[in-house]
Amino acid sequence: MESISMVLESKDGTIAVASAFPGHQEAVQDRDQKFLSRAVEEAYNGVNCGDGGPFGAVVVWNDEVIVSCHNMVLKHTDPTAHAEVTAIREACKKLKRIELSDCEMYASCEPCPMCFGAVHLSRIKRLVYGAKAEAAIAIGFDAFIADALRGTAHYQKAHLEIKRADGNVAVIAEQVFEKTKEKFRMY
Known about the structure:
By secondary structure, the chain is α+β, with helices and mostly antiparallel strands. 41% of the residues lie in helices and 19% in strands. A hairpin with a 2-residue loop joins strand 3 and strand 4.
C-alpha cells in the first residue's frame, strides 16, 4: 500500500505531518471516537455517583486505555481533582513515571487552564477533546476558563491578587533552584 506524507502548516505556525494512505483519516477518526466515547461515559459516571461535574478523561498507551477517570472534586473536596488531572495522576502511578510522552489523552470537554497545564507538564503527546468549554459555561461553569484558553481573559474577575514577593524572601526562594539542581533532575 502506497503512503503519502504531507507536511501541513497551520495559521499559528504549528506543523503536523499527515499520512494520506487510503483509509488513514477514517481509521484515526474511528479510534478517536472509541476513546472519546469512553471519556464521555466517565463524565456520566462521575455525575451519576455524585463525585463531581460532568467531565471524563482517559489516558491511552499503546492503543490501550490504561486509566479512565472522571471529575472527583466533590468526592475528594478538592478543587484540583478534575478528570484530566486525576487521569494524569493515576497514569503516572500505574506506569511508575512522571513523563507520559508516549501517551494520549481523550477528554470529554476542552481542558481548563489547570488541566491543560497538567497535560503539558506530563508531556502527553496528543490531546483529543469533545465539547468546547462553552458547553460547560452554558450550565454554570466559570467563563474564566474559556477566556483564559482563548487569550481574552479578564483575570480580575477572579478577584485574586497576584504579586511577586519583594526583598530577600524572593531572592531566597529563587536560590532553591540553584542550590538543588544537582540533587534533583526532572528528566
